[in-house]
Design brief:
Order of helices and strands: HHHHHHHHH
Structural class: mainly alpha
Low-confidence stretches: 3-7, 13-18
Strand content: under 5%
Radius of gyration: 25 Å
Oligomer: single chain
Number of strands: 0
Distance between the termini: 78 Å
Helix content: over 70%
Largest sheet: none
Shape: globular
Number of helices: 9
Length: 236
């Protein structure tokens, strides 16, 4: 009986190990496939964004990766681009502050877009909105990264070439955001345009409320600290 029990335990442990390995392979396979699918999204945005959400072709892991690459490349652009094309005080740049200054508004826009879906009968979940917005950043990553190197090879007279490519990356991203949200919420172009304007207004309201909250919180903390100091002073 003991031999049979030990054999069963060994079989279960081996099965558990291989099961975990298979799960990891499945995860990495899906992750790599969802990364590659980003190239289809940016070249065939209408079909790409629809399948990204409704056919589950995308993944949150890939979306996180694209957002992280976007933030890293933004910091690299400030630090490594030739001084002829960008003037940034490199010695005073805080990497985390620069990333936060982009990541926070990005997340607020996603939250505002999700919050406005109740008013406009949108079908997208927050997860879908976030994924579509992250996948829309791919042109910025693909164009801006090599342009950091190219900027150190160009002369000031060739700045127009540099500017055109940078503008293309931004316009492409904006177009993908428009199409992505249109497909996620199943809107028409006109309704999507109005929805984007309302989203920006909603994001500004959220930022205003956050600033008011922290301002009131700072005043409250200062009040209680001064009260504490006054009590300690009088007791002494």
């Amino acid at each position: 009986m003991s031999i049979a029990k030990s054999a069963n335990k060994t079989g279960r442990s081996v099965k558990g190990i291989f099961g975990t390995s298979e799960k990891r392979k499945a995860f990495w396979g899906r992750y790599l496939a969802s990364l590659k699918y980003g190239f289809h999204v940016i070249t065939h945005p209408f079909d790409g964004f629809w399948d990204l959400v409704h056919e589950k072709r995308g993944s949150l892991a890939a979306a996180h990766t694209f957002l992280l690459l976007f933030l890293v490349i933004r910091v690299m652009k400030l630090m490594l681009t030739s001084f002829q094309f960008i003037s940034a005080p490199v010695q005073y740049i805080n990497v985390f502050e620069e990333m936060g200054s982009l990541a926070l508004p990005f997340l607020i826009l996603c939250i505002a877009n999700w919050a406005m879906t109740t008013l406009f009968d949108g079908k997208g979940r927050f997860r879908d909105i976030y994924m579509a917005m992250c996948y829309a950043l791919i042109p910025y990553i693909l164009i801006q990264l090599p342009m950091i190197l190219v900027s150190n090879m160009l002369t000031f007279e060739e700045a127009s070439f540099y500017s055109v490519l940078l503008n293309i990356s931004v316009i492409w991203c904006v177009f993908l955001v428009f199409v992505g949200l249109m497909e996620v919420h199943d809107y028409g172009p006109g309704k999507t345009f109005i929805f984007l304007i309302v989203t920006v207004v909603g994001a500004m309201v959220i930022i205003f409320l956050i600033l008011v909250f922290f301002s009131l919180l700072s005043d409250a903390i200062s009040y209680f600290v001064s009260m504490y100091r006054e009590i300690i002073f009088r007791l002494n």
